[in-house]
Amino acid sequence: MLSGIQHFAFCRRQWALIHIEQQWAENYQTVDGELMHKKAHDGFSYEKRKDTVITRGMPIYSRTMGVSGVCDIVELKRDDAGVPIRQFDGKFRIMPVEYKRGKPKENDADILQLAAQVLCLEEMMNCHIVKGALYYGQTKRRMEVEITDEYREKVSAAFAEMHQYYEKGFTPRVKKTKACQACSLKEICLPELDKSGSAGSYIDRYIREKD
What we know:
The chain has helices at residues 4-10, 12-19, 28-40, 109-125, 149-168, 186-189, 199-210, and strands spanning 45-49, 52-62, 67-85, 90-100, 131-136, 141-146.
């Protein structure tokens, strides 16, 4: 899943628990984020506003990277230098818009998800996309992001690593950080094991303490 790159950039273990072990838990942040995405799209649809076509829920994929997903919104602005789209009778400049709860993050997890959408759209439509945008629910503002070569390389490298983990069924070990407190999977992940070594040594010590 394309959206998995956001989990992977935040925490490789979180990504593996969700996408390899199929484990999930809700908290306020996950529920609020899901509601925001439902408002952004509910199946594929589009509307025209003067020289702009706004699509919602557009399915996207990349055979090169082996991923697929859905864009919250893709804006198509009429532009003679853009890519021809026969359905709308003209040429358009393409920009994906990803909706996020909260506010801009200190890390680049959201940006990498947006960049991954750009790479998929470029492959599907045989075009070059300069920028995308992130809309944050807390600030209620749109942040435009230039999709640089650095972001493109990070996305390709991340998906390559994700495929390796997935094929091996490998879940990275715990690496506790301050971000663990806000993670909906902390009761499943058990970040406290980071100080205890392996799960086996943790269980052995627990049994000894009970004896």
